Design the sequence.
């Protein structure tokens, strides 16, 4: 029976959530069109991870090699080329993550496989697939189809598919020989560099007041800081503010920054790109202030205020100060 | 060090009220401002910083109609030496794979040590063109680069991972790097600066100049096609706080007291 092969993404001994999300989506696709699920696990000393994956797949393809201790697009491409060429899966799923974005497009190009990236929806009709992606930073969705015949590759956005528990699958462990040799690589892993530790730990704050692109200029930040101080909140931000060097990286909420779970999260001038929402969706209550009533942040908020932040924030600050006194 | 930078002109939609165009396959772009793709502005800045440090030239490449000259000229004003525009009616409707194919054919004609692209484009967000380009040219690559350092015939790059972690690779040159936002601070381009390069010639190449057949590009060469676009389904959505600013402030205060433990 034809397969869907899911690449197990792991780093420093831990499977990343997108792996479970892809396996869950695969289960649904496999059941609807009659496919089996294979999961590809590449690494060194990853036997325990293989055990954890077994109930989610018909087969766990385990390729162990000391050269696979750290991810490298070159080694991953060699190993996956061999696996995909031998197994001929109808569909290969890879996370649209820092890892997947680095190797999947090259792998698909070399294998001449049609690729659709950053998908948030996958629907199957026979052996054809219809994908949903987002355009213009999530402002619109697009329905996309393949123009060529499979096998296909799809990269999947983190958090796009829920993890649904189902009865265990057979999970046969298939150990495959590594095709890697000592032949030199043009790309060599050197080390990891940890995130710098800042003066403030935003993950510990009860109230976060977060600013985004809408703040427009660095000179406007003190106004929001005053409001944050008035309510005992900590200042955080979305990516554009860090890119412009207006606040340090340790204040960034989102996929490439921190994941926060404050009691109250106030998003000011943040449009709500999925990378940002992924970092704050665990907040107890979310208040979003944005002048665009269609801003995606309102879908992630408990309360919304459609307003010009430069008009509303000073009023909020003054009113809170006044009410705290009385 | 000769550097090629691939760029794209895109509509600015971050602060815009976006609606679906008549074709149902794209947004209504009338009334939208256009600019250099944000990721590409960091890529061109990085190329110019390297040139200023190490010497050499920076060549910018873009696929598109005459409108794209605006973004190419912006890059010239920032400090690039040459700009090339790849244009052909047959290129329209190309997906990410074909975009990389067109760029690769043009790049084969130019000497280079390093190729930079943005990690992704603000409009279609494929995030694949740079990596496919490397595959087609048969050279190494790294995606999501947020720091780099050229060493002799090699380059040391930091790749941005999730949660603030980075991984460091050493890569042989020539190579393709896809650049992440925040790697530098793109320089400001004044209107005077743009005027200075207004007369500079921008060479154009079409499909036949690049030995590309019409069936290899556009929809016929593409892997994927866009069927239609639609507004994302609204989630459960927020309870909207309305009224005068003072009334809204009062409601926010109550929420902070109730949910945030404000005392």
Sequence:
């Amino acid at each position: 029976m034809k397969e869907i092969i899911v690449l197990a993404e792991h780093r420093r001994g831990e499977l990343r959530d997108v792996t479970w999300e892809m396996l869950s989506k695969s289960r649904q696709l496999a059941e609807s069109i009659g496919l089996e699920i294979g999961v590809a696990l590449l690494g060194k000393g990853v036997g325990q991870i293989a055990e954890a994956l077994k109930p989610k797949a018909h087969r766990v393809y385990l390729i162990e090699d000391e050269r696979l201790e750290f991810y490298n697009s070159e080694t991953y491409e060699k190993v996956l080329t061999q696996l995909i060429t031998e197994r001929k899966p109808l569909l290969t799923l890879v996370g649209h993550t820092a890892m997947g974005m680095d190797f999947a497009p090259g792998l698909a190009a070399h294998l001449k496989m049609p690729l659709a990236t950053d998908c948030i929806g996958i629907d199957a009709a026979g052996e054809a697939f219809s994908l949903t992606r987002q355009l213009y930073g999530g402002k619109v969705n697009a329905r996309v189809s393949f123009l060529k015949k499979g096998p296909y590759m799809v990269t999947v956005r983190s958090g796009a598919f829920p993890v649904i528990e189902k009865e265990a699958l057979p999970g046969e462990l298939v150990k495959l020989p590594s095709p890697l040799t000592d032949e030199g690589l043009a790309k060599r892993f050197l080390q990891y560099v940890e995130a710098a530790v800042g003066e403030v730990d935003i993950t510990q704050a009860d109230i976060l007041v977060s600013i985004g692109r809408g703040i427009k200029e660095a000179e406007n930040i003190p106004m929001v800081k005053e409001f944050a101080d008035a309510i005992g909140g900590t200042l955080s931000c979305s990516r554009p503010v860090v890119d412009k060097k207006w606040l340090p990286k340790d204040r960034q909420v989102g996929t490439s920054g921190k994941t926060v779970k404050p009691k109250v999260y106030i998003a000011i001038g943040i449009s709500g790109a999925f990378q940002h929402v992924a970092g704050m969706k665990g907040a107890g209550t979310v208040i979003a202030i944005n002048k665009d009533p269609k801003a995606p942040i309102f879908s992630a908020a408990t309360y919304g205020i459609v307003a010009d932040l430069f008009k509303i924030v000073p009023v909020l600050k003054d009113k809170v100060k006044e009410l705290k006194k009385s | 060090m000769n550097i090629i930078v691939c760029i794209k002109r895109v509509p600015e939609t971050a602060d815009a009220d976006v609606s679906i165009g008549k074709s149902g396959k794209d947004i209504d772009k009338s009334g939208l401002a256009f600019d250099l793709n944000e990721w590409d502005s960091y890529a061109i800045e990085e190329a110019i910083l390297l040139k200023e440090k190490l010497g050499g030239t920076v060549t910018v490449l873009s696929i598109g109609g005459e409108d794209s000259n605006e973004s190419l000229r912006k890059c010239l004003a920032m400090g690039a030496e040459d700009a090339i525009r790849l244009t052909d009616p047959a290129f329209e409707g190309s997906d990410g794979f074909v975009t990389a194919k067109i760029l690769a054919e043009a790049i084969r004609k130019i000497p280079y040590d390093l190729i930079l692209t943005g990690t992704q484009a603000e409009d279609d967000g494929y995030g694949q063109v740079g990596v496919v380009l490397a595959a087609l040219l048969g050279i190494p690559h790294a995606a999501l680069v947020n720091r780099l350092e050229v060493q002799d015939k090699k380059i040391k790059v930091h790749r941005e991972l999730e949660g603030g972690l980075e991984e460091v690779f050493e890569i042989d040159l020539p190579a393709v790097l896809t650049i992440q936002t925040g790697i530098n601070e793109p320089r400001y381009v004044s209107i005077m600066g743009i005027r200075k390069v207004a007369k500079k010639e921008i060479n154009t190449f079409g499909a036949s100049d690049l030995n590309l057949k019409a069936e290899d590009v556009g929809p016929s060469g593409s892997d994927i096609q866009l069927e239609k676009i639609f507004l994302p389904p609204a989630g459960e959505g927020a309870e909207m706080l309305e009224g005068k600013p003072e009334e809204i402030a009062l409601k926010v205060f109550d929420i902070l007291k109730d949910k945030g433990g404000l005392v």
In short: The first helix of chain B runs from residue 38 to 54. Chain B touches chain A through 85 residues (CB under 8 Å). Chain B has seven helices and 13 strands. The longest strand of chain B covers residues 141-151.
